[in-house]
From TrEMBL:
Source species taxonomy: Bacteria, Pseudomonadati, Pseudomonadota, Betaproteobacteria, Burkholderiales
Domain HTH cro/C1-type positions: 26-78
UniProt GO molecular function: DNA binding
SUPFAM superfamilies on file: lambda repressor-like DNA-binding domains
Species, as recorded: Cupriavidus necator
Family annotation (PROSITE patterns): HTH_CROC1
Database matches in InterPro entries: Cro/C1-type_HTH, Lambda_DNA-bd_dom_sf
Xref: Pfam families: HTH_3
Protein name, as recorded: XRE family transcriptional regulator
Length: 114
């Protein structure tokens, strides 16, 4: 399934379907790492029964979900849920670039042939 199609489907899903989708993604990544449910639950500090419930039905706490994200090295993607922060970061990056461009000698500020 294409990313665009997957995104479109997510918009129409119920909360239960979204939870199951997220749990399935975590399950796939856990399996890709060749970890059993037991080993993964221990690694993230969650009771096995709690983790099994999360993975099979998408039920659990936000804490369990965040621990699972950390366990599959994906917690750093949470910033994408709040794009405004990314815009501010980009603006700061552009300001830093502009400051450093001003410090360049004149012959390097303008591309040759312009």
């Amino acid at each position: 399934m294409s990313v665009d199609r997957e995104l479109e489907q997510l918009k129409g899903w119920s909360e239960a379907e979204v939870r199951q989708y997220l749990a399935a993604k975590v399950r796939k990544m856990r399996r890709d790492k060749k970890l059993s449910q037991e080993a993964f639950a221990e690694r993230i500090g969650v009771a096995l029964r709690t983790y099994k419930r999360f993975e099979s039905h998408g039920n659990g706490t936000l804490e369990t979900f965040v621990k699972a994200l950390k366990g599959i090295d994906r917690v750093h993607y949470l910033f994408m849920l709040f794009p405004q922060e990314a815009v501010k970061t980009k603006a700061r990056f552009v300001q830093v670039l502009d400051r450093h461009t001003v410090d360049l000698p004149p012959q390097l500020r303008t591309p040759p042939g312009t």
